[in-house]
TrEMBL record:
It is a multi-pass membrane protein. The chain crosses the membrane at residues 6-23, 35-54, 89-111, 117-135, 155-175, 207-226, 238-254, 261-279, 285-305. This is ABC transporter permease. The keyword Transmembrane applies. It comes from Nocardioides humi. CDD domains: TM_PBP1_transp_AraH_like.
Amino acid sequence: MSLRDAGPPIALVVIFAVFAALSPQFRSVANVQNIMDAAAVLAVVTCGITFVLMMGSIDLSAAGVMGASALAVALLVENNRNGNDLGLLGIALAVLLAAGLGALSGLALVLLKVPSFMTTLGVSAIGLGVATLMFSGVQPNISDEMLEGWATGRFLGFSGLAWIALGCVLVGWLIQRYTRLGRYAYAIGGAEEVLALSGVKVAPFKVAVFTLAGAFYGLGGVMVTSQLGAGLVQAGKGYDFAAITAAVVGGTLLTGGRGGVLHSAVGVLLITVLTNGLVQIGVSPYWQGGVQGLIVVAAVAAAVIPQRRRNQVVK
């Protein structure tokens, strides 16, 4: 591991130590559990967006995709709106819907040759539209004990959502490390032209990455529904920017070719610890967004310094 890769973990330890010294409440076991629970959904969403960022693309569809999956799962499991009670099958169908929206982003990118931030922004609007249609002016409240148990049940002190997030990070790392999809995502971000010239058909892998990202967003939407006990159109509001922030802070480059799921997971913890610590020491919530923005700018600047010195250009 290079010093550049070690930076975010060191920063996480330092920030945790500083807040622990400033606030006794921050270093309590209960607060550590709260931090892990608060990081769960963001970690799952960040797993998805990390693969897109590794390709050098950007994905702004998380909010809409999560909204669609949140409403879908709320209407497919036991709820107050209809007689459905599909349980795990309902969850799987909601995640499948989200994966389909992710595939739509990828297909629009490779077929229409439109920049990814535009295609994914359009898919986000589609997802929000689908969610609004399913909402139909009446909030669906879930009564499925299994799904509610994700948020309320605990094992070894942590909620089911935290364990699901840990599983997603592990699965994401395995895909990144041991599958062709993960290796090609790196290669596309590092030198797509070289990969294409070597005979690899890049387009299917781009669609596959966006599909995988959509599935992660969909699971994130299901997790939010478990937390709230209801399906909301705005279930994914703010998670797109937060996930990009966490990935970049963790060391995943916006230009692609560097970083990964474990890097982004560290970024999620760093952002969550920072947010929690600012609250514990009494900093106004109005300042927290500004602090996160400054951290993103600093992280991006630090990451591109070697490239800027080598290329002597700013795009």
